[in-house]
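So, can you check what follows?
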Amino acid sequence: ERVTIRKAPHRRQPMAFAGMQLIYTVVTLSAAPLLYFFPSLHYLWLLFLVSFSTWNGSCFYFEVFSSRYEEQLKQLRLSAELADLATSTPQNST
């Protein structure tokens, strides 16, 4: 079950938010001294961030540009079919 601020009584919601924000801040900033005092850990963290960003970028590239490419192929196939129909139908000359 998710913990949400809305579950707290209305009067206590600001305090609930402040408490959750304090916990989030402490957890997030707790890694900073480790990264500062251990350069190898810092470099590993940076390598992880670069790798993760590269992976997300490549996934975006393949999803977006492959769908665009498929759409272009559909349009090309449709125009080729229309061109075939135009050339294959006999014209009435009167």
The two ends are 79 Å apart (CA to CA). The chain has a mean pLDDT of 89. Helices lie at 13-29, 31-37, 39-88. The CA atoms of residues 87 and 93 lie 15 Å apart.
